[in-house]
Amino acid sequence: MGKPIKIRAKMKGDIAEVKALMPHEMEAGFRRDPATNERVPAHYITDVVAQHNGDVVFTAYWGPAVSKNPFVSFSFLGAAVGDTINVHWRDNKGDSSAIEAVFK
Amino acid sequence: MIRVFVIILMATGLLATQPASAGPEKDLQAMQDFYQKRFPNVAPEEFANGLYAFDEGARAQWLELEDFPPYEIAVEEGEAYFNTPFANGNSYADCFENNGLSIKQNYPYFDNDTSKVVTLELAINQCREENGEQPLPYLRGELTAISAYMAYTSRGNTINVQVPNDNPKALAAYDAGKQFYYSRRGQLNFSCSSCHVQVVGLSLRADPISTTVGQVTHFPAYRTVWGEIVTLHRRFVECNSQVRARPFESQSDEYRNLEYFLTYMSNGFELNGPSSRR
Amino acid sequence: MKIDRRFFIRKVMAVGVLLAVPRILFAARPDKAFAATDGDQAMASLFGETPAASDRVVLKIPEIAENGAVVPVTISTDLENVESISVVVANNPTPLAASFALGPRSVANVSVRIKMGESSQVLAIVKADGKLYSASKDVKVTIGGCGG
Fold first, then answer.
1. Predicted ipTM?
2. Chain B contacts of A20, Cβ < 8 Å?
3. Smallest CA–CA distance from C16 into chain A, residue
């Protein structure tokens, strides 16, 4: 199980704005461990999915060039204060994490 | 970059050498006056933002980071560690005033019993040892996260380091820190002031450099270059190494005295840590 | 250079409720495009063609990256029926950094932070109504962010 996602969900007029920060190494797989000189295997989030009222409102596909502890923000229409939004990720090693937040 | 510094250094001179001992209050005033004169168009509280007070482009990127900063992860982890009781049932809150919350502005302080400067990180480890726990490593990880959480709860408080005039030992520790700040060292023969006083601000040829005043308000700081949150002493290590000087140990007497002096130079500033820096 | 200092001393920490992840959610990631080692190859794999420049795609990215490890990017467009937004860093070892799939309720405005190993052209590609539109900027990197 990956670390918990940090999330902020805010209504700005009609627009539902979601910002998320995901604690994750996002190891690109090019680095060598200075101690062992072994290549550090790639370990990064590959997919992020957000759902509102059962609809998928946003999907992100990532490669290893997304920064460590990834940040993403996206917006959509048709939500209201008090609604919930779910955000999920999974990575190339099969780890995953998911969070739910309420629009303010 | 270092070569550029040398060229600029030869062209400047002000406050380069250690000012005669006039007492902490006068030192602080002189330092503030110097920067005010040097940067008449920069609001003094801006110095708390380090190099971002000078570099618009870098500042815009920093502001974007601060919108949802990576150090929030460390703050949250730090809070969890902070609230986890020790094996004996006590916790960090029992070791500190006000249960350890909103107190960073009082660190470092001079402890008369040991005649040493006590930093927040040192106090955290002392707390552990008093409660039968192993001290934590200083450079990264759990201790830095706890310190980040404690700094976070102290945001907005005004730094108020005391160097009592009637306490010669405290004054001596402050003077040792000041001496360190103005001493040239390393193969490149630079002092801290060579860079942070003399070539401070934005130059065309080198990276922008932060001012001595307001420099410690945001520690521990998330270094984007390292992708982790680090203590003030880790920054000292890096600045010493940059000029190919032998760095000191974290929480050595040298760095504690240096932190005492340097934090005094931020007296009157609001704490705004943790923050991020490149 | 006045700023709102309160911005930096506000204390907001986000809280959410942990959930279990339903596997079924994840759709097909374009793995082949992500594996491509040059930008045109990545775009060919994603779209079958190289997109044409359009001033309706707004790519906000610093001209000089403060640090290649964390380069903030925002892409927006006033085009309708946006299906996807992708970010390609031409000189990265694997140029496709991110691809976002949008839906009918999406507002076409996404932000992400990316790594850049060296100075490079960065492209934003928007697919709307089946057509491709792009914007690009040259970004200078002095402290590299070890690739990706």
1. 0.95
2. 68
3. A101
Residue A46 lies in a domain: yes
Residue C132 and residue C126 in contact, taking contact as beta carbons nearer than 8 Å: yes
Domains and CATH numbers, chain C: 29-143 (2.60.40.2470)
Contact partners of C by the rule of 3+ C-beta pairs under 8 A? A, B
Angle, alpha carbons C16-C21-C27 (nearest 5°)? 120
pLDDT confidence band for B76 (50 / 70 / 90): very high
Helices (H), chain C: 6-9, 31-35, 39-47
Compute CA distances B48 → A16, A101, B230, C90, whole Å. 34, 34, 17, 37
In 3-state terms, what secondary structure has residue B36?
helix
Write down the pTM of the prediction.
0.89
Q: What tokens were used for B244?
A: 């190919």
Question: Which range marks the domain in which residue A98 is found?
Answer: 6-102
Domain B21-278 has CATH 2.60.120.620: no
* Rounded Cα–Cα distance for residues B37 and B248 (Å): 33
The domain that contains A37 carries what CATH number? 2.60.40.10
| B70 closest CB neighbour out of A19, A20, A21 | A21
